[in-house]
Specification:
Distance between the termini: 28 Å
Strand order of the largest sheet: 1-8-9-5-6
CATH topology of the largest domain: N-terminal domain of MutM-like DNA repair proteins
CATH architecture of the largest domain: Alpha-Beta Barrel
Oligomer: single chain
Number of domains: 2
Structural class: alpha+beta
Length: 295
């Protein structure tokens, strides 16, 4: 499943085409994706101007001049392609490592703008979904009301993590992947952030807090590591996306910079460590770490 940097990469790819654009025509080719598409979906989009594109956790949010928000979740295989007048025909926003192929029979929603751009949503497995939500009620909507803070926002501090982690016996990996605490962090980037901060995924989350909920040095290191790894992945175009071309034509993909993820049995990259990357399974997900320098 695409993680936060991949979703942000797609959002940035859509932004030049959709932000500020008036939607001329919408083609809906089936009644549902993972969930039923909203009632009068086409009618509520056609003729509207998309004021801006934001992101919340792993959702892309299109704010419409009607006061509604088009919320999009890519699921496992959701893809967007763009065709613009005089430009590349059918440019896909990122070619995913776990490629599902681009079978046009899975083109489920097509959005055409007033200036002639076409944005096509393709989803082979239909685990993605779209909703139309009043902007004033977005935070209270079932998709969003339980989400935690944004990992790249100002709310992510060592003090915040300490308050949430005090007395917690859950391991650090599970703690960080709890979307009710920090929204948008996934398996890849949790593994990488824990490595950068020198913390074992097996440690109890309570190591981030002193008595009374005060932050520890471990928490300080972890906050820095989370920000660094996410920002680096966004700059590279994500990690489950490959061959993503930036606006300057350069290729970017973060998977070649992984320190631990997918590197079971390989030497640790930390200078002077001498350890070997191990793989364990936690809550059904693979965890990669160095048991020598991550403590």
């Amino acid at each position: 499943m695409p993680e936060l940097p991949e979703v942000e990469t797609v959002r940035r790819g859509l932004e030049p085409v959709l932000s500020g654009a008036r939607i001329r025509r919408v083609v809906q080719r089936r009644p549902d994706l993972r969930f039923p598409l909203p009632e009068r979906f086409v009618e509520r989009l056609e003729g509207r101007t998309l004021l801006r594109l934001d992101r919340r956790a792993k959702y892309i949010l299109g704010y419409l001049d009607s006061g509604e928000v088009l919320a999009i979740h890519l699921g496992m295989t959701g893809r967007f392609t763009i065709a613009v007048p005089g430009g590349a025909n059918g440019t896909q926003l990122g070619e995913f490592t776990h490629e599902a192929g681009h079978d046009p029979t899975h083109d489920h929603v097509v959005i055409e703008t007033e200036v002639g751009a076409t944005v096509t949503y393709n989803d082979a497995r239909r685990f993605g979904y779209m909703s139309l939500i009043p902007a004033h009620g977005l935070a209270a909507h079932p998709h969003f009301k339980a989400l935690g803070i944004e990992p790249l926002g100002d709310d992510l501090t060592s003090t915040f993590l300490a308050r949430k982690a005090e007395g917690r016996t859950a391991d650090l990996k599970a703690f960080l992947m709890d979307q009710r605490i920090v929204a948008g962090l996934g398996n890849i980037y949790v593994c990488e952030a824990l490595f950068r901060s020198g913390l074992s995924p097996n440690r109890a989350a309570s190591v981030l807090a002193r008595r009374g909920g005060k932050a520890t040095d471990r928490g300080e290191r972890l906050v820095v590591a989370i920000r660094e790894v996410l920002e680096a992945a966004i700059a590279a175009g994500g990690s489950t996306l490959r061959d993503y071309r930036h606006t300057d034509g350069s290729l970017g993909y973060f998977q070649h910079a992984f320190a631990v993820y997918g590197r079971e049995g390989e030497p640790c990259t930390r200078p002077g460590c001498g350890g070997t990357i191990r793989r364990i399974v936690q809550a059904g997900r693979s965890t990669f770490y160095c048991n020598v320098c991550q403590r």
